[in-house]
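Appendix B: a complete holo record

For completeness, this appendix reproduces one full record from the ligand-bound portion of the collection. The bound molecule is zinc ion. The inputs are the chain sequence and the ligand SMILES; the output is the full three-dimensional arrangement of the complex, encoded as structure tokens. No fields have been trimmed.
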Amino acid sequence: MKNLLPDLEIPKVLLNRIIERARQEYPLESCGILAGKTGRISNFYPMVNVEKSSSCYRMAPEGQLRVFLEIERKGLELSAIYHSHPHTAAFPSQRDVDQAFYPDSLILIISLMEKGALQMGAFQIAEGRIEKKTIKVVEKD
Ligand SMILES: [Zn+2]
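The structure of the chain with zinc ion bound, as generated:
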């Protein structure tokens, strides 16, 4: 796979906000955008899942554009697109693979499938291939 992306490094505070969001939106999929530099996340932008579905998500295009512009203005990179899997494992679905429109960013999935045992995974999806990345949770941002 060309253009290998760095692993994901995420401050605990931000990860907790994402998990909280996933739980709030349950049983629907929640989604959002993560920005930072070379895989180090510094900003989390929660987004609206306009599909209102428990098996797929789609971010509102105008909200997405606004966040992309803000990321650019701040000199950050689109590090990852986040979404939750309320009922399935933390692994990309076929739809996730088919709709991986940003091969230069990772896909972060949080699974709420097992109660009390949160699973998460970060993946690079390019040309239909899935590569699992490491998620490093750091105390400070
Ligand atoms: Zn998915």
